[in-house]
Amino acid sequence: MVPVLMRDYGADLAARWQEASSRIGDLTLEFLAFAEGRFLTIHPFADFNGRTIRLFLLELLRRLDLPELELAPQSDQEREKYFLALEAADRSDWAPLIETWQSRLTPEN
Asked: Cα–Cα distances in Å, from 78 out to 1, 14, 73, 103, 105?
């Protein structure tokens, strides 16, 4: 099923790209959350999913003219919150990953 799921994933990304890239805003956050969460739900590799998705996300950020970010959680608390967000994405609940992207893109004061 992986080839079919990845083909559909690519088509879904392409369909969302125009709106996500035309103006940076809520749709961009949703696009990035979907790109990350759906890819990791499909799990096309037995290992190296984290490195693979981070590389892919960095390329998406570049194409959106957004800054390069640290995408890997740095603390145990961040890691736990991130894994809960990914579990929610497995159920097509994008809100926690959207929140993760909001915090990634919002500089701390």
From this structure: 32, 30, 5, 11, 15
User: How far, in Å, are 10, 40, 42, 70 from residue 7 at the CA level?
Assistant: 5, 14, 11, 28
Nearest to 60 by CA among 105, 99, 91, 96: 105
Instruction: Place 109 in a pLDDT band, splitting at 50, 70 and 90.
Output: very low
Tokens of 95: 């809100």
What CATH number is associated with residue 34? 1.10.3290.10
Domain housing 86: 2-105
DSSP line for 41-108: HH--SSS-HHHHHHHHHHHHHHHTTPPP---S--SHHHHHHHHHHHHHHHTT--HHHHHHHHHHHS--
pTM: 0.90
Enumerate residues 6+ apart whose C-beta is below 8 A from 39.
9, 49, 53, 56
Q: How many domains does the chain have?
A: 1
